[in-house]
Every structure is written in structure tokens, then in C-alpha cells.
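Q: My labmate handed me this sequence with no annotations at all. I'd like to see what the chain might look like in three dimensions before we decide whether it's worth expressing. Could you predict it?
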Amino acid sequence: MDLKLSGKVAIVTGASRGIGRAIAQTLAAEGMKIVAVARSKDQLDDLAASLKTDSLVQAVDLRNRESAAAVVAAASASFGAIDLLVNNAGATKRGDFFELTDADWDDGFALKFFGAMRLSRAAWPHLQASRGAIVNIIGIGGRTGSADFAIGGSVNAACRLLTKALADRGVRDGVRVNAINPGSIKTERLDIRLKSFAEEHGIDIADAERQMAKSSGVGRFGQPSEIAAAVAFLASPQCGFCHGALLDIDGGQTRTL
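A: Here is what I predict for the chain of 257 residues:
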């Protein structure tokens, strides 16, 4: 299927590794020009070297208030337009609620929620001009509370509401806004959890993966490429009537309505 994305410009945050890197690679394979955003310049440079389309590296910390506007300005100056914003950056600390500090909470919201909010605000006029799209990468933790994921769940829930609010405005302004809620995806973060689980129970990584997947109620964990493929489709004119959607890609882990 031709997704009709060739020649368009995408900003992808958290692009240095994991899901974000897969998204950047998938969009580039569809012919999009990529503005890759993350804190690690070395990893971004490595990504850019692997892409077959034009790219721009932006090694910034989106927790800083000025970073979002700077990224958007650089993207516009380099490519003349912005057609897609993928808000993917953001990791939150797990742990016992009573051991999480105010600084942990501040940091959790600073990158994932406020980074996405500021980028959406800064990019909006450009997306309105191009009749473009936003895809937010959030997570299923925003739907089901978990004792050791209080920060992440709260941030994800806020991002879900932000998606709906921007979609409401987007009807008027011609900007499509959707979100993906990944479940457990085979990234470095999950690999660390698998290693810890394996060491704790005295088993190998393969057994740890099978047991953790089973305890989550899924047949297997997902791959970053599966999230990336969904992003490309949501961004495409082929999915032009999809607006304000919150798409769970979690292997069936979420069983609530």
C-alpha cells in the first residue's frame, strides 16, 4: 500500500533508540524527511547515517522549556514545512508510591507530558498549514492503575486527555491527532526488566520472557517495528478519517472497555 508520505517532513522525538528509532526508520522508508530528536547526539548521528532520506539531528533535552520551539524552528528552516509530529519521548520512574519523590514526579511529567504539549503547541501552525498530523505514543498504563507505576500511569492518562483535547481543536484547524498505547515492547527498558526478573528467579532470559508475558496475559511481547508501522498508517492520508483515536497495541493485555 502506498501511504502517500513520500517527501513529507516528520519530527520524531525519543528517536535515538527503541520505539522512536523504529518509527524514524519506518517513516524514512516511506520517503519522509526526518527530524530526529533526543538527548544523545551520538545515537542520533548513527540513526541519521542509516536513513536513506534527508534528516536533521536535534540533540536537545525536551524537559527544557525552550527546546520545543527551537526544534520546530530548526525543522521549518531546514525543510520548509512540517507534516507530522510524533511525540514519543518520555520515560517515567517505577517504584513504591511512598518512595517516589517530588523530583521523580516532576521529571515524569516534564519530558513526556510537557514536552509533548509544548511541541504540539509550537508545531501546530505548521501542521495547520500542511493539514498534517500528530501521533502521540503513550502507553496502556494510562488505562489501568498499577501500584508500582503511579507516575507513568498518571502521565499516560494526562497524555490521553491531551490527545482528545487537541483532536477536538484539530477538527476546526485541519490537524489530525491520534495516539497509540503500546503494551510491553521489546526495547532496552524491557530487556532490563527481563534481566532483573531472570536473576531474581534463577532462570534464563528466554524463560523470564515467557513467564513475564504469561503473567501479563499475552502470548508474546511486541516489537518496536509493530508500533512504527501503526504510526505510519495513522499519519497517512490512507487513514484520513481516523481522528482522536486511542489505539491499543498490546497483544490483548488491556481487557477493559
